[in-house]
Amino acid sequence: VVEETVKLLSEMGCSRISIGESTIEDRELGSDTKNAFAGLGYGLLAKKYGVKLHDFNDGPFTKVDFGDYSLEISDHALAADFLINLPVLKTHSNTKVSLGFKNLKGCLRTKSKMFCHHRELPLDSFICRIGEKLSPQLTLTDGIYALEKGPAINGKAHRTDVLVASGDMFSADVTGAQLLGFAAGDILHLREYAASHGRPLDGSDTEVHGGSVEEYARPLEWDWKWQEDDSGPDAFKRLGITGLSFPKYDHTLCSACSYLNNLMLVSLIGAFKGEPFGGIEFLGGKNACSGGGFNKTFLFGSCAIRANRDNPHIRESVKIKGCPPTVSGILRALNDHGITADIEAYKLYRNSQAAKYCDQSGFMEDHFHCE
Ligand code: SF4
Questions:
Q1: For ligand 1, what atom is nearest to the CA of residue 285?
Q2: Which DSSP symbol is given to 58?
């Protein structure tokens, strides 16, 4: 979709095209935006069409005033003559959907992204207001695949073959939400936007061309089920894993910590040898506060460490430092405390997430590489 968009723009005479993105950076794993660009073959777009590639993480940024707070937004996004927003059609474990509005969070400096995972202010409210500020001229949602239980790779992609394009991001997102099986009113950032801009949530002010929403709608799950007593995801119950507390993530856990949270869950599954863990708990995010009752409390990241500073209920704390922590730091902390975990097992898990699409008709790797 990116390649075809560039081609069309070029054919229409646009000579100054740039692509901007900002991934989570993991220096230890060598993972960053530039690697993503290289993996997607965007270098070819640079060569063939003169496209400039901007890793938004490199800045520059402008501090933009939102009244109660300010956020640093990429100058490249702010200065664009014509901003094209290219989200994919996916569900999200916090905001239910991640479409045009949510995609724009990628234009923020990392620190500002983290600020949006605020203790008191809802993430959806930040999402709504960033959308108001950037207000793209075109939103084009790539729904060749739709992601269930997104936003990460442990979700499940479905081939859906639909694109949504609109000059009005709200209309594009109301339609995108409906395609994923949600009423727009279920999505808090769309509800907030509708209330402050006098827009209906039922799509009645949007004309749909090229097919009906009902024809393409595919209701997908967005949430990961968790055990009510906080002893981990439902998968732990199925596997008979007991003897630990692992409360569900909340919106205060940033994306950078979220994917590492998955590493810990997978590591615990790998380390389980049929015996209950010895009364341990894992806490992450800004609201995670131990109520006690455990032999050891793993505090995952600076936020959880700060939230539990001087917490008298904690018998022994294991501080996994960092914002976010590193993969090696997490594995070291687990191993130092008798939980056998290694990166190879995690790599196998990650590979299995990719392998689940192999030999499945409709899943084409070509869709993820420029030709
Ligand atoms: S420790 Fe994790 S949750 Fe806290 S600000 Fe850093 S990345 Fe976000």
A1: 3
A2: G
